[in-house]
Amino acid sequence: xxxxxxxxxxxxxxxxxxxxxxxxxxxxxxxxxxxxxxxxxxxxxxxxxxxxxxxxxxxxxxxxxxxxxxxxxxxxxxxxxxxxxxxxxxxxxxxxxxxxxxxxxxxxxxxxxxxxxxxxxxxxxxxxxxxxxxxxxxxxxxxxxxxxxxxxxxxxxxxxxxxxxxxxxxxxxxxxxxxxxxxxxxxxxxxxxxxxxxxxxxxxxxx
Length: 207
Ligand SMILES: C[S@@+](CC[C@H](N)C(=O)[O-])C[C@H]1O[C@@H](n2cnc3c(N)ncnc32)[C@H](O)[C@@H]1O
Hints:
By secondary structure, the protein is of the alpha/beta class. It has one domain: Vaccinia Virus protein VP39 (Rossmann fold, 3-Layer(aba) Sandwich), CATH 3.40.50. It has six helices and seven strands; from the N terminus they run αβαβαβαβαβαββ. S-adenosylmethionine binds next to helix 2 and strand 2.
């Protein structure tokens, strides 16, 4: 049967904690799998802020949302919508504190990070491979995420050490987690130690 994948485990941990109507963040919208999951989990009355630096990723996310609920175009409200409201932000997640309205700070129920790169996404302008998440901006976003979360809120961070640049980012995230004060968060690590270079998951519950 096997154990749950890292991404399924992230969704499981979030869904166990989310209440309908919550405000949540997808820090890396990509193809929109987590954005759609979050929009369903919070339901009508809830709101998802979804960040990505790639327009192509946001377009994929929008398409996925429209296919799932044709009346749920991002930015559109109303009782007829099956999903929570989704606000697509063409911005880096390091801008999270500035982009998520002040009234939601300290009240966000869940923040999901799926680091690395978007499979099948466009290459960087320099032709230097895909657009990947980077240590500096990831750590800035993680700091902001902890400030935005409500007490009892959850952050999930899927970490990918297997691609070029991924090892540096994974080490930076590992160090950041190790330095977190124990009285501020409870931290969980979900990992397949026999699969070298495979993704792993951190989950943080804010105290
Ligand atoms: C692994 S993919 C996300 C997959 C997505 N969660 C899904 O369900 O399809 C990582 C995404 O992070 C995005 N990204 C890279 N740097 C970013 C940043 N600073 N802020 C927000 N998104 C970023 C990439 O463009 C890419 O789409």
